[in-house]
Amino acid sequence: MIDEIARNVARVQERIAAACRRAGRRPEEVRLVAVSKIVPPERIREAYDSGLRDFGENRVQEAEAKRPALTGLDPTWHLIGHLQTNKARTARELFGWIHSVDSLRLAEKLHRGADAGTAELAPLPVLIEVNIGGEGAKSGVEEGAALDLARGISALGSLALLGLMAVPPYSDDPEAARPYFSRLRRLGKVIDSARLPNVRMDELSMGMSHDFEVAIEEGATLVRIGTAIFGARP
Fold first, then answer.
1. DSSP H/E element including 153
2. pTM above 0.90, yes or no
3. Does the structure show a pLDDT above 70 at 117?
């Protein structure tokens, strides 16, 4: 199993490097976040031993339950799933990055978590989740409301807004995601041009196992890969 995960990681890293070459980018510009939801701790440990240091979880409760079995490791944990406001303080304790800020109310809850002494001294890196496809079943702020949300977050000094995250409508054809990735990149430039305090649009969290190469070609700096590393989930 260890060899299988190590081989998968190597293949994904090769694909990332190839996509970067096509886009005229350096592989070091792309951070591989291994999506470990529903993955048992022993397999996460195997991925860590294969060289991965960034792991993404969808649910606060699942991440909290796994943590005792992963002592001795020092990964960066990314929350990539929808975050309920009543879990904000716990999320701030558990995660180094929050990719899924989709309302000012949630951002304020995360900010207040720092006031309660539950966070590091450094501002918490956060991303605005954008519902780039306008899908009713998905979380995320509407594309047209993202700049206003960025303005609100900029006033919360314990948060550092570093970019945007999105999950485009699913298609078997990875190329179908390209227009959505391109739109997210352009939206980041619009927000960046506003020159808001505590806001830098350096990061684009976009691309999963089936479309991450297209995402890299369109500027992704964080790709969230689960199936291509850990295999299909039950």
1. helix 146-154
2. yes
3. no
